[in-house]
Amino acid sequence: MTAHHPAAAPATSEAPFHACNPQRERLFTVRPGLAVDDALSVASNLLASSLVAVKGAAIEHDDVLLYGAVFQLEAIKAAVDAARVGLLAANRKGDES
């Protein structure tokens, strides 16, 4: 009989972001090795916060560009949330095997 070893949880890779000078050096970095589910959860929360702020500005200023940004944020948040749900479902299915 072979021992069942669960697959390692997917982890983040390093992803520098936010250019801070003319040389475009990155000030911040997503750390490698964090659980992807945790990263997706935080990303979803940040997107939700951004969406509230941009939607409020779009309504207040009746700005077509801001309404476009609202749509983009909604689309990105939907993709992140769908990826997280899919990841959780795959993890549950893997735990059952």
Quick take:
This protein is mainly α.
Explain the overall architecture.
The chain has a two-stranded antiparallel ribbon. 4% of the residues are buried. The chain has helices spanning 36-61, 64-96, and strands spanning 15-19, 26-30. The mean pLDDT is 91. The longest helix is centred in the last third of the chain and has 33 residues, at 64-96. It is 61% helix and 10% strand. It has 97 residues and is mainly alpha-helical. A hairpin with a 6-residue loop joins strand 1 and strand 2. The protein has a domain at 35-96.
Instruction: Report the span from N to C terminus.
Output: 15 Å
Give the SSE order as H and E letters: EEHH
Tell me the structural class: mainly alpha
Order of strands side by side in the largest beta sheet? 1-2
CA-atom Rg in angstroms: 18 Å
The average pLDDT value, as a whole number, equals: 91
Number of strands: 2
Main beta sheet strand tally, sense and closure = 2 strands, antiparallel
Percent of residues in helices: 55-70%
Characterize the quaternary organization of these chains: single chain
Compute the number of helices.
Answer: 2
State the low-pLDDT regions, or none. none
Overall 3D form: flat
